[in-house]
Amino acid sequence: MKEKTAFITGANKGIGFGIAKHLGLSGWRIIIGARNQERAEKAIRELTALGIDVPGWVCVELADLASVENAARELNDKHPELSLLVNNAGIPGDMGVDSLHTEIGDIRETLEVNFVGTFALTKLLMPLLAKNHGRIVNVTVPSEISPYWHPLAYVTSKAAQNAMMGVMAIEFQQHNTPLEIFSVHPGPTTTDLNGNMSLPGFHDIDTVGEKMAELINDGQSHQGEFVELYPIVKED
Questions:
Q1: Which domain covers residue 25, as residue numbers?
Q2: How far apart are CA 141 and CA 198, in angstroms?
Q3: Per residue in 68-111, pLDDT tens?
Q4: Residue range 115-136: average pLDDT?
Q5: Which CB contacts under 8 angstroms, 24+ apart, belong to 213-219?
Q6: Residue 199 belongs to a domain with what CATH number?
Q7: Who's near 221: CB < 8 A, 6+ residues apart?
Q8: Residue 233 lies in a domain
Q9: What's the confidence (pLDDT) of residue 191?
Q10: Helix or strand run (H / E) with residue 135
């Protein structure tokens, strides 16, 4: 059976770790994308203890394009069988201010990581992924603005990522590129990104990771789709 290898950014913790765990348990080989060696190695120990095949980790700092280029080069050289990229890593920006009080620097920094860095990594890995008839999955949020939660820097950066997905999906179809891209909104999830917020309607990392793995493994085409695992709904 052909090996299935996935590279997941930000896989050392949070939703990324949940995805890595449940994809790994379903038979995928998991390459950890992380910024910190200690945290990456801790995640590797936890995953391998579950019997998951983790050939290693790749250092990637999305705010640093040289780091992104090094990561892509390492993946191309060491993992020519790579067939899945999960763009999960991101930063929250300042979620505690309204648009009037949002700093330009915060907008710029959040876009650099969540959009520019993510685009750069995706672009550099596209030829390899296409050769392996692979897929690109973005972990994101809706572009439509929710009245209940709308931090400007974060939502803006994810809207740009959603636009990237839509454009690429159309181009893949128009050019008959053997590559698929889609986006997934996990819904409210308790993670470090939101200060481990836990409110009614929130899910834990395991629940989201398992459902994400089921989606990736469902055998269906999701080209250009925006899939909501747990939509945000208003409570009566």
A1: 5-228
A2: 18
A3: 999 999 999 999 999 999 999 999 999 899 999 999 999 999 99
A4: 98
A5: 213/19, 213/22, 213/23, 213/25, 213/26, 215/184, 216/23, 216/84, 216/135, 216/137, 217/23, 217/26
A6: 3.40.50.720
A7: 180
A8: no
A9: 54
A10: strand 135-139
